[in-house]
Amino acid sequence: MKYQVRERLFTIGEDFWIEDEHGDKAFLVDAKVLRIRDTFELKDAGGRVVAVIKHKALSVRDAMKIEDSRGDVIATVRKKLFTPFRDKYHVELRDGGELEVHGNLIEKDYRIESHGDRIAEISRKWFRLRDSYGVKIADGADAGLLLAVAVCVDHLVEED
Questions:
Q1: Could you tell me which residues come within 8 angstroms of residue 101 by beta carbon, excluding any fewer than 6 positions away?
Q2: How far apart are CA 91 and CA 73, in angstroms?
Q3: Which of 3, 75, 87, 121 has the highest CB neighbour number within 10 Å of its CB?
Q4: Where does residue 117 rank: exposed (0-12), middle (13-18), buried (19+ CB within 10 A)?
Q5: What pTM value is reported for the model?
Q6: For residues 46 and 131, what is the distance between their CA atoms, to the nearest angstrom?
Q7: Measuring CA to CA, which residue among 57, 26, 58 is closest to residue 42?
């Protein structure tokens, strides 16, 4: 499944919809205004909270936490300390698993991998709108989690 995400809208107070490849509203990114740190809720089309994304304050490396609807941390996204040839982010999952995010993050041409298998691909080449990029999710992968990871990466890259 492919999703369309509007870029440069990850500011507090600006909500927006992530649409599927057919143009239907699939997920709402609800930016919370009255919070000390950057917080976004990812909601499905029915309004159910799929993930809560929080910028981790006062950390050695910029990081964002992804929580489930109960407030339990399910993933932490952070930039790798040393990456000489390309941007690379690392995702630590609650169950002990890991995801690697690498490619050209500024140009929105990167992939998310689990154990070397591509589970999501992010590219702005799929849509004609200049301020959008696509997120293609592999069959059986957790769309909510991977879209939340893409939101985190986009937000962290914008801050660099």
A1: 77, 88, 89, 90, 91, 110, 111, 112, 113, 149, 153
A2: 12
A3: 75
A4: exposed
A5: 0.85
A6: 25
A7: 26
Which residue in the block uniquely carries the two structure tokens 């929080």?
54
- In the structure encoding, which two tokens stand for residue 142, read together? 């957790």
pLDDT tens digits, 83-96: 555 568 999 999 99
Q: Residue 29 — very low, low, confident or very high, per pLDDT cuts 50/70/90? A: confident
Express the helix, strand and coil content of the chain in percent, nearest 5 each.
10, 50, 40
CA–CA distances in Å: residue 133 to residues 19, 34, 49, 66, 152? 11, 28, 23, 21, 14
d(CA 25, CA 3): 9
| Contacting residues for 109 by C-beta, under 8 A, at least 6 apart | 103, 122, 123, 124, 125
**DSSP H or E run through 40:** strand 39-44
- With the CA atoms of 81, 55, 9 and 48 taken in that order, what torsion angle do they form, in degrees rounded to the nearest 10? 130
